[in-house]
Amino acid sequence: MAFDVVIRSPHVITDIGDRPAAVCVSDGRIVKIAAFDEVLLSEKDITITGALIPGLVDSHVHINEPGRTQWEGFESATKAAAAGGVTTVIDMPLNSIPPTTCVDALAVKKAAATGKCSVDVGFWGGSIPGNVNDLKALHDHGVFGFKCFLLHSGVDEFPGSDLPDLTAALNELASFDALMIVHAEDSIAIQKSAKPSSRSYSEFLASRPKGAENVAIAQLIEEARRIKGRVHVLHLSSGDSLALIRSAKSDGVRISAETCPHYLALSSEEIADGATQYKCCPPIREKSNQDELWAGLKSGVIDL
After folding, report:
1. What is the CATH number of domain 56-299?
2. DSSP per residue over 198-218, as a string?
């Protein structure tokens, strides 16, 4: 048969490893992976020297449309994703207006995305105080799971959850085996921390201590253990929490965790005072902490 496009590379990465191969595409889909030098009929035959990898999936994306499209909209976000080799993005439920906390809001977001997406797009639902009865319907309408914050989210229309709110939502999600993904910083621990009084990065770092993550993750683990729910720790930055997660996994708690490129590539020692482009929560921590995150990723305690 003739293919639309054949792309040949000495380094084609698949589930069986790195090998020379020819990737055959028809109607926008990969239909065959052939030997590198196999004679193939095609409208276009391209040989590249670089590696050819599968499309990446970014499960933690804030697109913010509708409502705050000036921050990032579906058109710009998905074009940027495609340019970087990301072929699927999963959009977070907050920062858009309305947030994705009920079926009607999900419909608004889907309508906003229609005709603007250059890659595949999915959606997370939101878990906030008072919307427990909306979670099953959102799940039935296709969200991949539900996000909650254990402190103020940064936007008033997506309030944070306290421990009773988390428990109620986890009980509901467990009834249909849905996933809760969690921004795990403890609000009380942060309230007790010293507030930055200058543009010093070290002061900002001290205002978001590892202990705030550790306490929140410990609470999440115990609730997941008791309820037998599925939970995922978002953007883990505290290396101290790895032992908690490792132990929970060995006990059979259904927990996974992610970290982020900026935690793995940057350290607090490199960040100048006033360099607000590096400000994030949880924060970028010390080089010794970064080493712990790398070890956790390599060992599988951190899943992605």
Report:
1. 3.20.20.140
2. SS-HHHHHHHS-HHHHHHHHH
